[in-house]
Design a protein that fits this description.
The complex is a heterotetramer, with 2 copies of chain A and 2 copies of chain C.
Chain A (H helix, E strand, L loop, with lengths): L2 E7 L1 H7 L3 E6 L4 H12 L9 E4 L2 E3 L10 E5 L6
Parallel strand pairs in A: 1-5
Antiparallel strand pairs in A: 1-2, 3-4, 3-5
Chain C lengths: L1 E3 L5 H6 L8 E8 L3 E2 L2 E10 L1 H18 L4 E7 L1 E4 L3 E9 L2 H18 L2 E7 L4 E4 L1 H7 L1
Parallel strand pairs in C: 1-5
Antiparallel strand pairs in C: 2-7, 3-4, 4-6, 4-8, 5-7, 8-9
Helix pairs in contact in C: 2-3
Classes of the chains: A alpha+beta, C alpha+beta.
Chain lengths: 81, 81, 141, 141
Amino acid sequence: MKKSITVIYFALFREKAGINQEVILTEVSSVADLFLELKYRHQLNEPQGHCKIAINDNLATWDAEINDGDTVLLFPPVAGG
Amino acid sequence: MKKSITVIYFALFREKAGINQEVILTEVSSVADLFLELKYRHQLNEPQGHCKIAINDNLATWDAEINDGDTVLLFPPVAGG
Amino acid sequence: MKVISTEIDIASCSKLLVNSRAGALAGFEGWVRNHNDGHNVLQLEYEVYNPIAESEGDKIIQEAKTQYDILDAYCVHRSGLLEIGDCAVWVGVSAAHRNEAFDACRYIINNIKTRLPIWKKEYYQNGDSGWVNCERCAAEK
Amino acid sequence: MKVISTEIDIASCSKLLVNSRAGALAGFEGWVRNHNDGHNVLQLEYEVYNPIAESEGDKIIQEAKTQYDILDAYCVHRSGLLEIGDCAVWVGVSAAHRNEAFDACRYIINNIKTRLPIWKKEYYQNGDSGWVNCERCAAEK
């Protein structure tokens, strides 16, 4: 069954995707696989190791599971301070 | 020939000596020897390594020479900050 | 940890750490520089995702309190448009003794720079702009 | 380096280091604690021999500028009677990057504590008072 996921893009990723957010239907199960799918979809080429993903406002590990209805935040390389 | 030296005492040394300053006549030639003489004179028992001496407003090494007319500042162990 | 869009009032932040058992306050202020990697920077924009920036910042402060013998710590980060010389981030750590305060302050700012969802867009003199990626941060650490 | 007998205005001191090339300010504030070596401290008196404290302080700042890649540094130390919580010493260092600022700030405060003609007399709750000698400072370093 396909899952419905809300994806929110930040900073560089928002500019590259050309959108703030979108709802996608996907069959992937892990955060890492979702990241790959989104990279391909929007031609993002930042390496996974420099990026972060949050699910429902919590930072997630790359092997975390994606569930139907999740809101996923896609963070490009950060530069605080 | 005896040298006339003005000695000024600070903090703990001033309290132990019971005076702010005095003029002494001495035959010693080095700062280290003067320190020994003053320790004996006023029963000071702080080890030399924890103390400092200045001659005419400049910090001096222990082997520096004492000259007639010098003003010597006797500094007990410091505790800035 | 707080993310704010107005000027950081360092004196007020510092007062939050006052403690009669504290002998030391180590502080760090990050200022907007007029240059970066050879470019002349005119101004800077911070995009921050506040909910996670604040929760992750609190987590970093908690880690510092566990790892170092300190009394208190606090961090404020700006969001939005900043000019050269503006304070972008402040970290303060109080402790009985100074070594712990310095070590914890460094731990906090190092982690703030690499773990919080904060992005920096620089606007250059030549009209270009660009997002600063984390490569420089990693090298600086 | 300045020795003053009135409250240290940290915000004003900090402004002296503002520099558009600076990305980092590392700061240290030394506060009067309510305890030391198991004694309850009520207040503290700093005796300072200003001419050498200032010249030696300037020398320490100069050494820091030579040894670390920093832009500027400044230090203010109080003299006279201080209460618990008062700021006794402030050190600020500006640099392009933070590691140099932290290292230089630590170098300066470590040397301020051991090289300047400054003496600290503590007044305790039990009515006693005593000059703090440098043994604790050496251990703290």
